[in-house]
Amino acid sequence: MATTYKTPGVYVEEISKLPPSVAQVETAIPAFIGYTEKATNKIKGDLKGVPTRITSMLEYVTYFGTAKPETTIEITINDTLLNGVTKRDLVVKQPASREPFLMYYSLQLYFANGGGPCYIVSVGRYGTDLDEDDSQVTSINNSDDFNDGLAEVAKVDEVTLLVFPDATALSTPSEFFSLYNDALAQCDKLQDRFTIIDTHSYDAASPGDSNIADLRKFISSDKAWAKYGAAYYPFLKTILNYQFDEKKIIVSHYSYDASAYETIEENITAIESPSSGLPAVVADLVDLTTTPGDISGAISDVLLQMYSASGFDLGGTFSSDSTKKTAFLDAVEALLGSLGELNDFKTKLNTEAKAASDTISDEDQTIADGIDAALVTFNADFEGAGKIDEVYSNLQELFVKMQNADTSTKIKNLLDVNAVNFDAELKKLEDYTPLNTQTGITSNTDAFANVLANMTALIIEIRKVEGKDKNNGALNGRSLIAVEQEDNATYNKILTAIGNLPLELPPSSAMAGVYARVDSERGVWKAPANVSLNYVSELTVKVTNDIQDDLNVHTQGGKSINAIRAFTGKGILVWGARTLAGNDNEWRYISVRRFFNMVEESVKKATGVFVFEPNDANTWVKVKAMIDNYLVNQWKAGALAGTTPEQAFYVKVGLGETMTAQDILEGQMIIEIGMAAVRPAEFIVLKFSHKMQEI
């Protein structure tokens, strides 16, 4: 708008009459801080420690992978003979040593209970396909990683809930709750988020669960912090399915018909076959000729393509073209095929050795020990730095990179320049003098020299089992994937039994979903209680009225713990709505705290447009009108108590009302807002009495 008029003409001035509006912020955007299989968007590891917004399980799996497969699920098959008919009983038990990483399962539970957009912070990776700067996590030893993730979440304004799915793996209650104290401190500092807290564990056998006492002992008693968190108990038994590794889960098979060795013998005979077994594969890889020091085979074929004049001619004048690259890739592909076959035979022999050791352990531990020792010797050529397995893996990666190499420089780098290159990897299999002619390789080191001898020694130990086993069936010591091939019907029954195992999870992720669902359906002012949980089949602890008396009301410190209970005919319900400030009349209820969070953050963002505006009555009227309009809408929606807006809230701003002249001189505009937030009817008391008959 022009402030002076100099040129004759018509001028238009738009006069603002309406105040701006308050845009309501999101109320249920949790940040899940924990461990993932990977953290990759476009480049390996580019999401490490980066709060990443997702909206579905599909996105989670795409960026962060799945759960770490279980390897210790216990499977036992018992065969008995009853009236000439074999009766097979199957027993499947929970993993003996469950993986501590629960993020994937927790996200499933979150979305199943109504969750929507959320943030994932990967503080460590347990997968194997990682970037060079990352390292695989196998256990959770301290809370440092979680605190690093928490610090990153502090930078994300949209987050309103904090959840730590993997924190229960921390070894001590003090460290576990120290993490939650840090989260509560962040909530108090930022005043826009809320922490959902689990107990460290649970004790179904004890009516006075020590985990409850630990929470009240180690969670801070600071009232400023307590109002920003809520705890839930007990853990949940869900219908989610375990991820498991069929290659590593071993079956125990007991039978009246001791037939385990028959299967073992049949398989090791195939493995040691000179024409089609492991010896044949070794011959394909490095075939010793009659000329001392010369070899041929798949390795030699690759080296010839690298060093001969008809190939890349690394020993002379390097040159590359599409024909040479294609011939080289064909040779590498053949080599990888042979190494893959070798790896398969190694896996098969390991399976038979472990099956034999497990089969004989009840009858003769000495034989079992001999098998185990021979197996270690056999595997030594394959496992470890610079050994066959590592070379095989590196060559697979190099093969893919060579396929994509589109310049002579890139090809040369992959052949013998990069830290991991074809030349260096092949030398680990065969140390040789670089070729100038196609006459073979002068071999000084042969990685396969002892493989056949060690195979033979191991098979000799395995054959000592013959005739000595008394009680094991044909599937004993077999991996689940081997059972699929040998007895598909039993395999399918095992899968069904594993699927029926209840997967236990702490309740925080389910509650994050409940918060989102209730906020969406009713509003943030509705207490997230008297709500059923999805995907939950049972509770780990049956909470009674007597137990909840102590959980809900804590006379000493006011640290209320919300119970999740099972009711006949109703199912499993959330049966508590208190913050940790259970004795505080202002902040006792979760819905009140979270409603204030929403209003405070929404009004804060909306009033930002008035910063540096004139601090006078015109501005005050606009600010007051804006906030009044917003709170009237909240009152109409049912968030504020009162029959009129005047009873539900007030907004004060102005000289002599909320500010002094000195405040204005100091640049302060002070706005006072009071709200009569609705509170849940936690205790409904029905009073009955006799009425005297009147007629």
Automatic annotation (TrEMBL):
It comes from the Bacteria. Residues 584-688 form the Tail sheath protein C-terminal domain. Pfam families: Phage_sheath_1C. This is Phage tail protein. InterPro entries: Tail_sheath_C, Tail_sheath_structural. Belongs to the myoviridae tail sheath protein family.
